[in-house]
Amino acid sequence: MSTSDRLIESAQDLLWERGYVGTSPKAIQQRAGAGQGSMYHHFTGKADLALAAIRRSAAEMRAAAEEQLSAPGSATDRISAYLRRERDVLRGCPIGRLSQDPDIVADAHLRQPVDDTFAWLRGRLAEILTDGQARGEFDHALDPDDTAATIVAVLQGGYVLARAADSADHFDTAIRGLLGLLGRAGGSAR
Amino acid sequence: MSTSDRLIESAQDLLWERGYVGTSPKAIQQRAGAGQGSMYHHFTGKADLALAAIRRSAAEMRAAAEEQLSAPGSATDRISAYLRRERDVLRGCPIGRLSQDPDIVADAHLRQPVDDTFAWLRGRLAEILTDGQARGEFDHALDPDDTAATIVAVLQGGYVLARAADSADHFDTAIRGLLGLLGRAGGSAR
DNA sequence: GTCTATATAGTGATAGAC
DNA sequence: GTCTATCACTATATAGAC
């Protein structure tokens, strides 16, 4: 792996763990086993390296989600599989956590991949919910866009609850509650 | 207002805006109009002052929630009023944002008020949901504890979505989706 | 491309005068 | 109780040798 790649990967890890404000260029270099000069040769500075790291994390998160969302099965199956898939809950969401970082939100370039990722995810879930309505899995009164946003919010909020309590159970509890509500929003097929 | 109070209030503001990692003692002192010596006279250090600030923010959040949650009306009315009440969405949740801070989560003392606040809120909502079931507003198959966690998660996740998109609309969308799901979980009274 | 040296500012705290 | 001085350390770079 190239030095540039190692720097990006180290930045991904540290941004996930400590956020942008809590991560220093020096810490990234040390984890990557690279010197100062090396980092400033490949990137213009902290923000530039962070942008590369955020873009890569966003792409990885999208790919991971698509794995469950594009699987065969009913809409309910796919959404349920996505919600229940194995996660490192107490580490939080590598993308969602960035939305709490003041320097990320303040910089349009750094915020963009975060924004894009959630827009994509909401859109993807809305498609699946619409598909589910067509198949009679869900009530037609259910608004796909609103419900998609709710699903993503439960995931992101589930991480918050779990980390606040230092217990992954709280994530699972919130997901269970959501699946209970979705199950009761059945359509004509039930 | 005493110097100690001004320091706590400044710390509350800065913790809300920039988190624990992103807030320096110096910045707190300047916002409070106090010198170094003053801060270290009243508090043993940054963590001690932050703890006082977090406790105060937690108490304020609880009081604000209780205002809607203890209002007269049906369970649905009270939950809906709480979810739809005016919020400074783009600033995020002063307590929830702390769950993303590595130094808060790593320190049991600093995490405690955050944990307590969410535990209280989930418990309070579960009570109201149980009450709603008794009144026939909600299906008895709905698990109050799970659903309460889901409601809190939608709120916390709503902040994440709004900040990621720099638009409060995304918070409202997630809430609307949740109210749609809750409305479809009606019990015998519907 | 990578290294070391150096620079400027900020961090988190202590010391001691007033 | 509050102030200023000082401290060791870190943050985020730039410069220039190799």
TrEMBL record, chains A, B:
It holds the Pfam family TetR_N. Residues 24-43 bind DNA. Signal peptide: none annotated. Residues 1-61 form the HTH tetR-type domain. InterPro entries: Homeodomain-like_sf, HTH_TetR, Tet_transcr_reg_TetR-rel_C_sf, TetR_C. GO terms for molecular function: DNA binding. Keywords: DNA-binding, Transcription, Transcription regulation. This is AcrR family transcriptional regulator. It comes from Actinopolymorpha pittospori.
